Amino acid sequence: MVSKKITVSLCIIVKNEEKTISRCLDSVKDICDEIIIVDTGSSDQTKEIVKKYPVKILDFAWIDDFAAARNFAFSQATMDYILWLDADDVLRIEDQEKILKLMKNLDPYVDAVSMLYHYAFDQHGNVSFSFRRNRLVKRDKNFRWVGAVHEYLEVSGNILNSDICVTHKRMQGHSSDRNLKIFERRREKGESFSPRDLYYYGNELFDHRLYSRAVEVYQEFLQTGQGWVEDEISACGKLADCFKELGETEKQLEYCYKSFNYASPRAEFCCRLGFYFLNAKQYEQGAFWYKLAARLEKPIGNSGFMIEACWTWLPHLQLCVCYDRLGKHELAYEHNEIAREYSPENAQVLYNKKYFEEVLGIGTKKQEIGQV
After folding, report:
1. Do 22 and 126 reside in the same domain of the chain?
2. What local confidence, expressed as pLDDT, does residue 26 receive?
């Protein structure tokens, strides 16, 4: 059966996004058949900027509930499928092309399409933190957003995991205690928190360096035994970080190992353990964990948070350090070269390359061979 081209409504909720909204709309204006902007109370030039584009702009009275605002935006859509973005997201040229191709060939039985979310980048522009989100959904399925803060789109049915990427481009210096205040007000009212609420409440406390309180909330979350496994794994990492900041080393290690209760070892935790033993000058133990990280294969289709460096160059760079401290310079050089394949512009990798070539006399040997 030949598929007809689908039509797409884009839904975005905004508030004071004058610095980012044009960049976002410029990247999608030629893709979507309809653009719906829901403003939740902007006091800057956001609405004036948006009016320059072919969009439908609506106001929504803010009620401390992101899901309510997104559900309102979705309710205004009229096309076959709904795409959603935030104002500080963009689609790169190659991803615009991919989504146009998808729109022409999408199987009508697909209910939702997930896309990679490139959320953070290193100094060289390489993706350092990514995860998946359900981005394009069939309108007549009436999928709903859930959660007042850190809301998620609850989908079911036939889900296609695509290679399309949404790129997050947050403005420098942007920070806010808005989400934390929403959680605090809900707590004060005695509202019931779902396991997911507890996880994200813990994240807000952690981000504001309220480590003791974050520990309490993360532990409360894990004790429910009802969280999404990726959130449970992530909470173990956050707890390890909290206890590190609080100077409780044994607890830090306890939660690194506890992550293994929820799934097979992840590279992020192997690198955590490797770093702990490296700092403790227990280089054999450090090398063990970094070697394990280097051998792991990235989970296919995993929608949890992933630190790209831990699955690529970082364990090799750290193995280089461990082997150097153990006097195994050839092994150290070998792993530094592997790290260089992944991250050729990394300053530490380049420094190590020069250092080991001097230690091993590699440059001298090449020169002598050339003279012969």
Report:
1. yes
2. 97
